[in-house]
Amino acid sequence: MDLQLAMKEMEESKTFRKAMSIFLAIGNSLSGTEIKGFQLDYLAKASEVKDPVYKHTLTYHLAEYMLEHYPEGTDLYTEFGAVARSARVDYKELFDNLKRLEKECKASWDYLAKVTEFALEYRTTREKILQQRKRMAEKRERNKTRGKIWALEGTAEGGDPNRRRRTSQNGPNSLQVLGFANCFPWSVNLQSRVLHHIVMMLSMI
Questions:
Q1: What is the CA radius of gyration of the chain?
Q2: pLDDT-derived band at 29, boundaries 50, 70, 90
Q3: Which residues contact 164 (CB under 8 A, 6 or more apart)?
Q4: Domain range spanning residue 127?
Q5: Last residue of a domain, one of 89, 107, 141
Q6: Which of 42, 44, 55, 132 has the greatest number of CB atoms lying within 10 Å of its CB?
Q7: From CA 122, how far away is CA 115, in angstroms rounded?
Q8: What's the CA gap between 153 and 161, in Å, rounded?
Q9: Are residues 57 and 134 part of one domain?
């Protein structure tokens, strides 16, 4: 963020733009050339180049000229807060931090992948348990309904609901007595129902 702001500070600074143009003009005057620009490394030499008479540096002459011909200019350093902060950055430390950040990001991605896999497995297992519980509840409900049907059938026959069961265990049922057992090889429950219907039909004659 500071680096981006530093570029903006230099781009928008009128004092810096004016100083660089004058610095280029002084350099062309001293070297007798008409170049259009210079490398920024040349700025570091501004404090080394001195005039032969007063031994003032090139920076001194630049500042003096700016005060005389551009008095509305600033001291330049005050405008370059982000520039100064960016210059103090230890780029080796920054590079190490970026490498560490990259490593931690990769580790975080691996961690998130494991969490996602666990969450998917948990959801699948949870759904299986819910389905099992639903089937067990339906089975219990069917068993309750079946018991009620047996009780109603026993009551309709005018006796103990468990009489049919005891009768089938203790002796021959009514169809066996009537000789229909071999004709209807059904279960005891179905035979009892058929017998009940036969009795009802006979009572209506």
A1: 52
A2: confident
A3: 153, 154, 157, 173, 188, 189, 192
A4: 94-151
A5: 89
A6: 42
A7: 10
A8: 7
A9: no
